[in-house]
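Z., the sequence and structure:
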Amino acid sequence: MFPGCKDHAGQRCESHCINCDAPVCVKCILSGPHEDQKVEKLKETFERRKQEAISKTAEMKEKFSPKCKKENTDIELAMSKAKTHFGDLGGKCKSLRQSWHQELDDIFDKIDFLSKTFKDQNLNRLRAYKNEIQIVISDINQILETNNRVLRSRK
């Protein structure tokens, strides 16, 4: 059974456009979007693809399946070696963790102390600057108030 054409109602797609890789009807080929494109009968497309599938399946059985099986065996061997090699890694890590733990604590304590010191220094500088800005704002407000009084008195 041939599929119906999506562009021409009532038409069956008995051919296949090789350029677009899509089933096409006679109207599509003669005066439609697939005019001047390479087409073949849908049955030929099916047979060609079937032969390609058979060929690729045979190639996979012949070439890739043995290679994959060998690779799988090699991976299992590598995994076994890795388990043996890294088996005691957990114990070594625990030992290293304990030996470095105090040193890391000291480093982070120092970082924490320096961070608090820098924070306090910065806040003190910012407070001093804020006080200076507030004085400037107060002076500006006094000047503005004086200017407004002068401007109102001239009227």
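The mean pLDDT is 89. Residues 71 and 77 are 10 Å apart (CA to CA).

Let me know what you think.
H.
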